Amino acid sequence: MEAMHKTTLTDLKLLKQGKVRDIYDLGEYLLLVATDRISAFDVIMDQPVPGKGRILSTISKYWFDNTKHIIPNHLVSSDVNDYPEACRQYSDYLEGRSMLVKKCKPLAVEFIVRGYVAGSGWKEYKKSNTVCGIALPQGLLEFSKLPEPVFTPSTKEDTGHDENINYEQYAEILGEATARKLADISIALYNFGADYMNKNVIILADTKFEFGYYNDEIILIDEALTPDSSRFWLKETYKPGTPQMQFDKQILRDYLETLDWDKTPPPPKLPAEVLDNTLSRYNEALNRIKGLQDGKS
Predict the structure, then answer these.
(1) How many Cβ atoms from other residues are within 10 Å of residue 154's Cβ?
(2) Exposed/middle/buried for 53, CB within 10 Å: 0-12, 13-18, 19+?
(3) Which helix (H) or strand (E) holds 209?
(4) Beta carbons within 10 angstroms of residue 116's beta carbon
(5) How far apart are CA 169 and CA 108, in angstroms?
(6) How far is it, in rounded angstroms, from Cα 260 to Cα 269?
(7) Mind listing the domains of the chain with CATH numbers?
């Protein structure tokens, strides 16, 4: 499978290149194209993961279709036949890895929900028994399930590292009423996804969401409950305090942690084994989520 590290849709207006998605301005709408780029620690790797963009788009569409009862989202269509005429010449590139979406004003926050203590949350917990300033019970092991999911927002940076912020800082950015509403919606989305994936023996350890304004209404944007925005673990082998079987890019993060790399560009060269294993886990996540869609358990 040919990998797409960067799009070249020369007749379309490129608005922005994110860590994974290239965004084109189509006037009334935006075109999101999920490339095969992969990032870790907010640094884009030089090597793509072939097919990753199609997996991410399929998973996001699934969740956008199934969370509309919680909050509306920006998806208009993922069928290239519904796209403006100017896009049709790129059908081979766009099929399966793109979305036509509403043009929104994104909020300058990432909305993170954690159901388990892992990653940066574990590092903070070991020091202070807190995650993003939220007090947690003593005696938790790495990967322990929290008594209830916690909302831990962060800043959203186009370049460099996102920064965790406390609830007071978050509310100051958005205003108390909007802040409370979106914290509640984020937790509702997490709980829905976690309960749903639990049926196919996936643990949703944590995830992030993004929201934006569309005609004065706040809607869900970007992606939803994908391996790029979440930690997925295998329920069958889950045990606190021991490494988890993961369906996300933690394989890549773990490899990078073994290197003498300061987590700033340029990124190190990745072994083929790391890329292949990452793609395999992404595929497994997709297959399990599709199993839910097909009514399997």
Answers:
(1) 19
(2) buried
(3) strand 202-214
(4) 24
(5) 12
(6) 12
(7) 1-297 (3.30.470.20)
Find out whether 166 and 133 touch, Cβ atoms under 8 Å. yes
Q: What is the pLDDT along the chain (297 residues), one digit of tens a residue?
A: 578 998 989 999 999 999 999 999 999 999 999 999 999 988 999 999 999 999 999 999 999 999 999 999 999 999 999 999 999 999 999 999 999 999 999 999 999 999 999 988 999 999 999 998 899 999 999 999 999 999 999 998 765 567 889 999 999 999 999 999 999 999 999 999 999 999 888 999 999 999 999 999 999 999 999 999 999 999 999 999 999 999 888 889 999 999 999 999 999 999 999 999 999 999 999 998 887 544 444
266 preceded by a cis bond (ω within 30 of 0): yes
Judge contact between 288 and 246, C-beta under 8 A. Answer: no
Burial of 31 (C-beta count, 10 Å sphere; 0-12/13-18/19+): buried
What are the structure tokens assigned to 252, written together? 């890549």
- Helices 176-198 and 167-174: crossing angle in degrees, nearest 10, is 120
3-state secondary structure at position 187: helix
Residue whose token pair is 């800043």: 155
Contact 87, 12 (CB under 8 A): yes
pTM: 0.92
Neighbours of 66 (CB within 10 A): 17
Contacts of 168 (CB under 8 A, 6+ apart): none
Q: Residues for the chain: how many in total? A: 297
Q: What is the CA radius of gyration of the chain?
A: 19
- The CA distances from residue 82 to 40, 75, 267, 282, in Å, are 33, 12, 38, 27
